[in-house]
Amino acid sequence: MSGAEKEVALLELPEPSSPGPGQILVAVEAAGVGPWDELLNGAGWDVGLRPPAALGVEGAGKVLAVGAGVTGFAVGDRVLAHEAPLPGGSGFWAERVLINADHAAACPPGLDAVHAAALPVNGLTAFQALEKLGLSRGQRLLITNGGGATGALAIQLAAAKGIEVTATASAAAAERLLGLGAVEVVDYHDPNWSAKVRGGFDAALIIATSTADAALPLVRDDGRLCSLTSDAPPEERGITSWDLYVEPNAAQLVQLAEQAAAGTLKLAPEPLPLSEGPAAFARVVTGQAGGKKIVLTRA
């Protein structure tokens, strides 16, 4: 859906090539949309797209063909994946996509394609951030933009480990996030929100742009700050501060998919037909998705 002029539009694209060694060809049933897709379209994140090409680095579907050496999957298997770089030069917002088999996870029977496609990038980002923050039961975590797709998953994953989560979000999202396991939700619309929470957090997870500087003073000496918005502040008071960029990880995705299938990890995707891809892209990159995870479907 990405043309040579960087315009997002519906296109007729050539069929992907047959899978090479270690690759699988997937019939896409649903594909996730995220703010990162704007980086793909503007070459800010080079995942090997070769325009004209389909955007999208996550999705779910059925295996159509397997390449040499692939032993974990067979034709007809349901899979989900986050893939970057894209070996076929084209992404998931299409009828078929070529991916590396070792980046795909088996889709559990209880997880439909829409929910499966909503999971990979946001889920892996939250999982990898929490893993690196290394918090344990009873420790305190501040999450900015807890109401978004990544934040809501991070709240649930952290709460399941007994971590006490304070999240910034809109007032309208507060009840939902408390239900997901947050112990406190602060309205980010308040310019003095950082003065309304008790400091001394063991760590902060920055998901809202331009909140790292406000969050840093709330982290205790020798704590940790992980930014998903590429704006980790300089380290001070012994606080470890870094930017995190998600990576494909099939083993982690298997864990997340099983939790989602069991209902212990809740997702709230908004499915839209693939034909509405350009409009969905515009909504997401301009921040008009309202915290919803938009998923494009073949239906």
From TrEMBL:
SMART domains: PKS_ER. It comes from the Bacteria. Transmembrane segments: none annotated. InterPro entries: ADH-like_N (IPR013154), ER (IPR020843), GroES-like_sf (IPR011032), Lipid_raft_assoc_Zn_ADH (IPR052585), NAD(P)-bd_dom_sf (IPR036291). Residues 3-295 form the Enoyl reductase (ER) domain. This is NADP-dependent oxidoreductase. It comes from Streptomyces rugosispiralis.
